[in-house]
Specification:
Length: about 120
Amino acid sequence: QVQLVESGGGLVPPGGSLRLSCAAYGTILSISDMAWYRQAPGKERELVASISIGGSTIYSDSVKGRATISRDSPKNTVNLQMNSLKPEDTAVYYCFATGQRTIQPRDFDVWGQGTLVTVSS
């Protein structure tokens, strides 16, 4: 099994910063893409940022310029640094990873349990 464990959520004032971390554990051979998604109340889950094994990044327009995604591939971790937070960034943030296991079935897509980020004064 492969599991993702997230940390770093909480209450942040508008304009503040937050760093989310996610670590992957289990029978991992390799992880190709890692990403952060978020889901606000009453809305669909949306991509925040993703990073490939080669380091290529994609950001949603809503966080571009305010967020930085990074990964430590040997440690199977991914981080999301968010600055200048706005109330509309309030959501449950989910870590996502896709890759291959050391055992069958090889391919995996796995989600973390989610961590709540609340931006409010």
